[in-house]
Each structure stands twice: as C-alpha cells, then as structure tokens.
Amino acid sequence: MLDEILHRNICRSRAIHTEEPDYLIRLSTRQTPEIFRTGCSDSRVPANVVAGLDPGEVFVHRNVVNFVHSPGMNLLSAPEFAVGTLNNRETIVCGHYGCGGVHAVCEDMSHGLAGHWLEPIRRLSARFRDDIGRNRRTNIREERLAELNVIDGRGRIAEPPFPRRAWRRRGGIVGSRPDPRAERRSVAGSRLHNYRRRHGARQERK
Ligand SMILES: [Zn+2]
To answer: How far apart, in whole angstroms, are the C-alpha atoms of residue 7 and residue 138?
Structure first.
C-alpha cells in the first residue's frame, strides 16, 4: 500500500513537472492562500477538492465533525497563523451532510476518546432538541445538527481577540455571535442544498 502511494507520488510529480516545470518549485518557495478553512476530517470532503481549489490556495484545519473548540490551542493556532501571518482574506467554517461524528451523536453511540471529543456536539444537540426534533426522518435531523454545528462554529472562531483585531484592521465587519435559533441555514448549508437541487436530489426543505 505505502509503496503504491510513493509510486503515485513520483508519477504525479513527473506529470506536473512535464506540464509546468516551475510549478512545484514555485509552490515550495511561497505560500499565499487567501482562504482559511476549517472542516471535518472525513476523507470524502478534502478542502481543495470540494472547493475546486489548487494546492496553495487554501490553508486548512480539520478535525472530527469540525468542532470549533475555541479554547483549543490546536485550532486557534491555525487561524492565528492564517489571518495574522498569511493574511488570509476569507474564513470558511465548513460542515457536511452524512457526517459520521454527527451520526454517532444522534444515535448516542460511544467511540472512546472520539466520544469524549463529541461531547460539545451532544450538548449542542440537547440545546436545540426542539429544532432538530421537529424532523421525523433521522437523516434530516442529522443534517440539521450538522448545520447548527457550522453556525455555532462560525461564532466561536470569531471569539478570540486576534481574528477580530485582524479583521478590524482590514475594515471587515465583525458581528456578534450568530444565534442558530434565528438562522435556519448556514451559507454553506444553503449552497449544499442548491447543489442537491441542481443535481436532481430531493427538494430543499424549509
Ligand atoms: Zn464529518
């Protein structure tokens, strides 16, 4: 398996070099992404691929379920570097439907340390029990919890002082923490709904 991966890496490197000889050298000497993106570790939603971006265009942080743990050094150091040093202009908090972590919370499954990590999502689920519970279908409830997690995370990532200072310096508007009760869908959620609609999946629910 590892030999196969190394072989693919060499083949890819050669193919890129043939097509554009300076590309990898240029990529290795400079990093100037305009976007910071935090998302789930799920192997099916790699940041560059789902956004159609090339290497070097997005600075990424990922964890299980994309929980924005505002006191966590691991998460906070990523946006601090992205906004403060790389001068990222956009910050994306991205969730996804069909998330295994969200499913585990909704099904009350236990997964050792991962289960402990998911505890804040359980609390979020309990906090919005009425909102989530109004949907009868399990997959719709899970999708709603994934959306609420994105909305909650969007507020959390703006809490530390450093992104607020950086955004103010650039004239950005820093709003108060969004209230998921007043916000039925995240922008990302809406885009995913639109994607589904375009591709003939079920109608966007209200
Ligand atoms: Zn996930």
So the answer is: 42
Domain extents for the chain?
Answer: 1-30, 31-198
Asked if residue 64 has pLDDT above 80, the reply is yes
Q: How far is the CA of 74 from the centre of ligand 1 (A)?
A: 18
- In angstroms, what is the span from residue 52 Cα to ligand 1's centroid? 19
The answer to whether domain 31-198 has CATH 3.40.1050.10 is yes
Q: Mind telling me the catalytic residues?
A: 40, 42, 44, 96, 99
Instruction: List, for residues 37-53, the tens digit of each pLDDT value.
Output: 999 999 999 999 999 99
Helix axes 187-198, 138-157, angle to 10 degrees: 140
Asked if the model's pLDDT at residue 148 lies above 80, the reply is yes
Distance separating alpha carbons of residues 123 and 68, to the nearest angstrom: 14
pLDDT band at 201 (very low <50, low <70, confident <90, very high): very low
CA of 56 to the centre of ligand 1 (A): 23
Return all residues near 160 (Cβ < 8 A) that are at least 6 apart: 70, 76, 79, 80
Q: Give the integer Cα–Cα distance in Å for 12 and 193.
A: 34
Distance 169 CA to ligand 1 centre (A): 33
Neighbours of 12 (CB within 10 A): 11
